[in-house]
Each structure stands twice: as structure tokens, then as C-alpha cells.
Amino acid sequence: MAIRVLPPEIASRIAAGEVIERPSSVVKELVENSLDAGATRIHIEVQGGGIRFIQVTDNGCGIPPEEVELALQRHATSKLAAIEDLERLTTLGFRGEALPSIASVAEVAILTRVADSPVGSYIHIRDGKTVQKASRGSPIGSTVTMRNLFRSVPARLKFLKSPVTESERIATLVSNYAMAYPGAKFTLLMDGRRSLDTPGNGSVLDAAAAIYGGETARSLLAVSCEERASALYMAMTLKGYISPPSLTRANRQYISFFVNGRWIQSRVLTYALEQAYQGFLPTGRHPIALLNLSIPSEEVDCNVHPAKSEVRFRNEGAIFTLVQKGVREALLRTSPIPGLLDRSTVPSPSWQARPLSQQPPSAGAVARNDSETKAASPLARSVLPVLRVVGQVASTYIVAEGPDGLYLIDQHAAHERVIFDRLRSSREPVQLQGLLEPAVVELTPAQDALLQKEAIRLKEMGFTPEAFGERSYLLRAIPASLSRNGPARALQELLDGALAEEAGYDQAEKLGITFACHSAVRAGDSLSQKEMEELARQLEDAALPNTCPHGRPTLVHLSADHLEREFGRR
Ligand code: ADP
Ligand code: MG
Asked: Fewer C-beta neighbours within 10 Å, C or N terminus of the chain?
């Protein structure tokens, strides 16, 4: 497609703001342009931390002579034609802002040639003005050179770190792209020193070996996980490599996520990753991870951040679960210390009948408290607004106030949703109640068949029955939340509940729904203020806060508008 200036109605829908913050942002934009141009060789040269000099040379498609000047205009792009394209981006660039943004804060020269042109074109821009434009000999592809970043904006220069730190950022960035695009050969020269040279043979591990060394690369564990299409989730895949528990780093610099080929920063995904490592790593240590998520493009919005370094997921909870599950599976496959499953076989000495107030924070809550996250990732926002609990009605409904009116929460349905989501994401082990005397449970053939088939799932829920004669089992502990009616009934009723569930879900799902239903507070239970607040918080963080696992509403909203109308205030 030819380069053209986006019409204003598209340009205005593009996340505006600072594209170029530091030298590594320049490298990122130029490398992304090379990848979009189909390059298989990308050579990067940097001097003085990228403040003095950055040059990116590629063997991509090049820019036709008549379009070179246009490429430097704001909102001129060859990658986006219609508004609808914003919803299904296949290129890394799409807003035509990078080159003009760089040219507005530095000196830029472009030498480029397309295959069907005998010569290349050269353009040199200083202080935003074209100082030279000429035909020049050039190989096919493009070389973009930047000099003296922020010379004309000294205030921004002051915000940069030392050249050494900026160089490190560039090296990290290029390393990440080299591993995410192993089909391209990346070379990086920093102040004349070759700091990276990947083979570009398509192998992620070979690229990783060029970066981390052969021994580290060989020890990495493969992650491969798919979330099947169903009513809730479109097909999504997670692929990549993570370090085994024996290989750790002191910071999170070695963790990177790519979403549909785009390098993104996400506290939430990092949290999901580290959660999966829980019990495997000493505190203060972090894994190495290179994880690529493929998500249907309508499920992810890339147009939320000026530097395109953050994205928004339509169903963040599902992505969180996918990352956590994929990483956990990879760790469990290769490691003999099964954290979650094992822990649930050890009865915990103390337990709470209604463990509402002792739960570790969920992803959203942590994102809110973590000061590092304050940089306002739109990802940390949950679907429900923050609610202030006012009180309880009929020991069944929680009355709460939100930014727009009144909310009535069905305490049972809401708690079901919270428990169900937590179980599915295996964010934390189920709390157990140890039994002083082991209990014997006799099962019907149907109950027994389900128990045999879903033994792993039941174990995750806190049941580890030991065979004790035909269809008869010994229980030494049960999930604390099901302890109301005694151990035997807890298991029998859970199995019966799942067997009685309507068709349409698989059996593991049905067990989860029943577990949530039997564990949740009931209508008629009176709750303390603290318990209600805790439940409201947890519901705010749920992936699908508005319905219980059966699809019943968890809350009813009376907007301020509605109230005013009802009371004849307008
Ligand atoms: P965007 O990438 O969002 O389209 P840019 O300002 O980064 O905007 O680039 C503008 C246009 O210049 C691109 O759409 C592309 O057509 C062209 N271009 C930039 N860099 C290259 C390159 N290395 N190879 C080929 N074309 C390029
Ligand atoms: Mg671009």
C-alpha cells in the first residue's frame, strides 16, 4: 500500500502523546518499521547511549522515491487506510507518527531503495526542515540515521539517564525483538563494539543462545498452551520459553511479553507469571521469560498508548489465566515440586469457616497497591467501579454506593463468582480443614465414576480421597469452605451437584460451579462490614463480575439518573 496521510477522523482516534521518550524509543520505532517492511536482516548501530547517534539498516522493501518525503509527515502511513483497520492491525506501526516524531526532536537522514527503482533516494532533515534531497546509490532496503537526540529540547535531555543506562535499555530492547522475531538476523554495534549477533535462522533458542549463552538457552523450558474456543474464550495461544526454578535473576528485566508480535509492558501479565512461579522461586528472585501471546485481534486494543507499549485486553481475566496456566504447566511438567497440588494434601492447622477476609490480593488489587504500577496501566482497571459498602438487607443483599448511584449485590451469587474465578485461575490454594479422625465416605457408582475421572480437579479443590474398599474412600482433610455439613456430605454433595448440573458445561466446569455454590456464603448469612467490603473488593477484581457462574446477575444497578427521576427531582 502507498503511503498517504490519514484523514483527520482516523488520525484523531489514534492515541496521542509522546512517542519518543528516550533513545530506546527511537530504536524501537525504527526496528518495528524494519520488521513491518519484511526485513530479514536488521543492523543497528548506536553511539553515546543512542543520544548522539542511532542508525538502523534493513533489507526490507524500502520506500518508493516519490513517497520518501511523505513518510516524514505526521499521520502519513502505508499501513492503515480505514478506521476498521484499527480493529485488526497486522503491522507494528499504524499511526504514521514515528518518523515525524523523531525528526521533530533530532536530525534524521533516510537512504532507501525499492526493488524496482535503479537508484535509491536520500533525504536529510535538520530542525524539522529538509536540508538535502537527492538520488543516491543504495542497496535494496532502508537506512535511517538519527543524530543528536533532544539537542533542541534540552529539558528532555535532562530526563535521560547516563549513556550506559540508555545503552542497556537499547540492548534489552533489541535482544527481546531478536528472540521474538527469530527469523530476522539482528546485529547490534554499540560504540563500535559488537554486542549482539543472532543467527536469524528461525529458532528462538538459537537467538536466546546468542543473547544469554548456550547453557542458559539449553536449560529454558518450553511453554505452549492453548485456550480452546468456547462461549467465553476465543482461541488464544501462549508460546515461549521460561527459566527453570534453578535459574533466576535479581530483577524483572528478563521478563518479556509479546502480544501478536508487539512488545508490551504489562504488570498484570508479569504478576500472572510470577504467581505461577510461587513456591518455586526464593523471594526477591525473578524468572527469565519470553512469552508470545496470540490473541484474536478484536480481543485486544493496541491503540491505547502513544508508544504502543501497552495494550488493553477485552477479557483480561482469561489472558491472566492462560499465562498462569501455561507457565505453571511447564514448571510442573519438568519439576518434581508440585506447589499447588502438593500443598493441598497437607492439612492446614487453622482454618476459617468463611475465609473472606484473609485472601491474598488478586491481580487487580495488587496492581492498585503497587506503586510501580501507578504509571496508570489501563489494564489494572476492573470492569466494576470501586464500591463503598453501605450495609446489608435481609441478610441477603449488600447495599453499596458507586460513582453513579446505588448497587445491590446478591451476596451468594457474587461470592460464587469470586470463588469460581479464583478456582479457575488457581491463583491460590484452597484452604483446608484437617480432620482429627479420617472420615470414610461411600460413593454411588455415578459419584465414584466422576471422582475417578476428575481426580486432579478434585485435588485442586482440596479433596485427596484415599481408596478404602470398593467405592469407599478415606478423607483426612476437606476444603474449609465445605465443612458445614461434615466431610462425607461435603464430597458426596459436591459430586451430586456436578452430576445434577444441566448439560452444556464439561464435568470439570460443573464441579467448579458446584464447588463455588456450596462454598459461597448463603442468602440469610449475616455478614460483618469487613466481610462485605472484602467481597465487594473481590468482585471488583473478578473477570466477569456481573454474573454468577450460572449466568444469574450478581448485582443490580440503580443509576443516579434513575433515582432522580423516580423521586421527581427532574
Ligand atoms: P507507521 O509505521 O506508523 O506507518 P512511521 O512514521 O514509522 O509510521 O513510518 C511512516 C511510513 O514510512 C510507513 O508507513 C512506511 O510506509 C514507511 N517506512 C518507514 N520506515 C520504513 C522502512 N524501514 N522500510 C520501508 N518503509 C518504511
Ligand atoms: Mg512505524
From this structure: C
Is any ligand 1 atom within 6 A of the Cβ of residue 80? no
H helix runs in 259-338, sequence order: 267-276, 316-334
Alpha carbon distance 222, 241 (integer Å): 5
Give the number of whichever ligand sits closest to the CA of residue 120.
1
Q: Is 142 in the pocket of ligand 1 (CB under 6 A)?
A: yes
Pocket test for ligand 1, best of 61, 77, 262 (most atoms within 8 A of CB): 77
- 262 and 391 together in one domain: no
3-state secondary structure of 451: helix
pLDDT (tens digit per residue) in 166-207: 998 899 999 999 999 999 999 999 999 888 999 999 999 999
Specify the ligand 1 atom closest to the Cα of 58.
23
Q: Is the CB of 514 under 6 A from ligand 1?
A: no
CA angle (278, 279, 281) in 5-degree steps: 80
CA of 96 to the centre of ligand 2 (A): 6
The residue-averaged pLDDT of 230-236 equals 62
- Kindly report the average pLDDT of the chain as a whole number: 83
- Supply the range of the domain harboring residue 256: 220-332
Residues 6+ apart with CB under 8 A from 126: 107
pLDDT digits (tens, 9 = 90+) for 58-92: 999 999 999 999 999 878 888 776 666 666 667 78
Q: 51 and 148, same structural domain?
A: yes
pLDDT at 222: 94
Nearest CA to ligand 1 atom 12: 71
Per the domain annotation, does 208 fall within a domain? no
Say whether both 195 and 308 belong to one domain: no
CA-nearest residue for atom 8, ligand 1, is 96
Query: pLDDT tens across 410-444, in order?
Result: 999 999 999 988 888 776 778 888 888 899 998 88
Closest CA to 56 of 94, 89, 25, 80: 25
One domain, residues 135 and 178? yes
